[in-house]
Amino acid sequence: MRDERGPIEREAVESMQHNLNQAEPAIIASYGLIGAILLLGAAGFGADLYLGTSPWCLLAGLIAGLSIGLYQLSQVLRH
Length: 79
Description:
Radius of gyration: 21 Å
Oligomer: single chain
Number of helices: 2
Structural class: mainly alpha
């Protein structure tokens, strides 16, 4: 098969790839933020079920996840 893409399409793909390469650290850090909130929130929820302290461990887990995630995000965006 012949490559029938024109120069405009090739430039568009190269431009998109360049933009994704530049944004990769921020994308990874944003997934880290979401992951930290979900992981520590779930750990807090589990602790609440085990200890019967609802909703305090959940809130502490969510706040800790948010804090850690935002710290990681700020470190990536700072560099």
